[in-house]
Amino acid sequence: MSEPLAPPPLTNDCFSLPPGTHWTPVSEAHDMLRARLSVVVGSETVALDAALDRVLAENAFAQRSNPPQPNSAVDGYGLRLADTTEGPNSLPLVDGRSAAGAPYHGQLPEGHAIRILTGATVPDGVDTVILQEDVTTDGAQIAFHGGLKSGANIRRAGEDVNAGDVILPAGRRLTPADLALAAATGMSELSVRKRLRVAVLSTGDELAQPGEQARADQIFDANRPMLLAMIEQFGFEPVDAGRAPDDRDQLRAMLDQAAQDADLILTSGGASAGDEDHLSALLNESGAMTLWRLAIKPGRPLALGMWNRKPVFGLPGNPVAAMVCTLVFARPAMGALAGEGWQMPTPLMLPAQFGKRKKAGRREYLRARLQNGAVEVFASEGSGRISGLSWAEGLVELPDEAQDIEPGTPVAFYSYASFGL
Ligand SMILES: Nc1nc2c(c(=O)[nH]1)N[C@H]1C(S)=C(S)[C@@H](COP(=O)(O)OP(=O)(O)OC[C@H]3O[C@@H](n4cnc5c(N)ncnc54)[C@H](O)[C@@H]3O)O[C@H]1N2
Ligand code: MOO
Predict the structure, then answer these.
(1) Which of 65, 70, 233, 361 has its CA 20 to 30 A from that of 140?
(2) Which residues line ligand 2 (CB under 6 A)?
(3) Is 398 exposed, middle or buried (0-12, 13-18, 19+ CB in 10 A)?
(4) What fold is seen in the domain 45-62+165-193?
(5) pTM
(6) Superfamily for the 26-41+195-338 domain
(7) 3-state secondary structure at position 31
(8) How high is the pLDDT of residue 12?
(9) Which residue of 209, 272, 282 sits with most ligand 1 atoms within 8 Å of its CB, as the best mutation to test the pocket?
């Protein structure tokens, strides 16, 4: 007679941390990724009007100063301060004027003033501009009160940017304002990184394609449209690598194709060690696999590997975990691969509108949004509750240490926008 099987103690907490397992803290996972990842994309030159959202490959230098010449900040009259006194003044006007794009060629004679418009080059001899509202004129002369400051209403050459200055650093993702700065300083094209191509592959026999007839036991593939859209919003090139069934050979072939088409592969599902977790099994076979048990909720199983020399992030299948892992791990990794550098957003510290008792030993992310300057969280922490992802405007991050959060406790809120969404 064999001994009856002895059951383990009941935890009923799939997030309990069994003793003996190494739970990789988020910061340790970040350090490891950072150390291993470097830029994988080349560079190309693009016209300014095609450079929005691209990553600068090298420092950009001002070709010319802004402004290139001194110009007037107002509509008014240019004069020499030395020709004025405190108290009432009058000066004769010269014939002609200086307008933006139609400068006055010549020197202002001593004891005279000249009509000048906003943006017009300041003629030689003018060191001060008086606002037209401070002047009376009959067209031949102007009368005004003295007490002006030297250089008043004149924008100095190069007061914004000097020729030769670094205007934008390598690694910068170009914004509309950056394009204005580059244009103003005489650049018409920029050297940028080729876009990082990111393949997205869903796995699992239970998945049906939106629009397809789904069997009763199937669910629609929600992760792929979400991840492809996130990649697009991050400014990378999404590559739809399809949906792989729970079949090792087919998954292998689809990974081969994805590795050919992209610089990085994101998969979702099959990341842990269940009977049908083919992704982690294949990455294991390929010999370059780390299955992390991350001390994070949600998103505990994250498989990292290489497939035909392309990095693979095996995201957990639950959509909430897939999104959190993408924001917290894959997004900064993509930045490093794309030449932007590893970046994590800075959170806003805002008062909680909720209460929670959090255990020590893992970092937690809750779906959150702002209401009257405080952070409220979604009613459920369930990792399959996609409605909460849509309800939220971002994530609240609770630190690894234990924390009793009472309403009013400051918590770290990361808006979706801070990640680039
Ligand atoms: N005995 C244990 N079971 C599980 C544990 C555990 O610690 N012990 N951890 C749970 C956690 S947490 C997660 S997360 C999942 C991770 O599993 P996998 O990454 O292997 O993912 P799957 O099992 O394939 O799928 C999980 C879940 O997500 C659904 N899914 C998958 N892909 C999609 C998709 N493209 N769109 C929408 N939903 C998707 C899938 O149907 C499953 O319901 O493991 C837990 N189990
Ligand atoms: O990592 Mo699983 O919930 O965290 O869904």
Answers:
(1) 70
(2) 297-300, 316, 318, 321, 383
(3) buried
(4) Molybdopterin biosynthesis moea protein, domain 2 (3.90.105)
(5) 0.90
(6) MoaB/Mog-like domain (3.40.980.10)
(7) helix
(8) 57
(9) 272
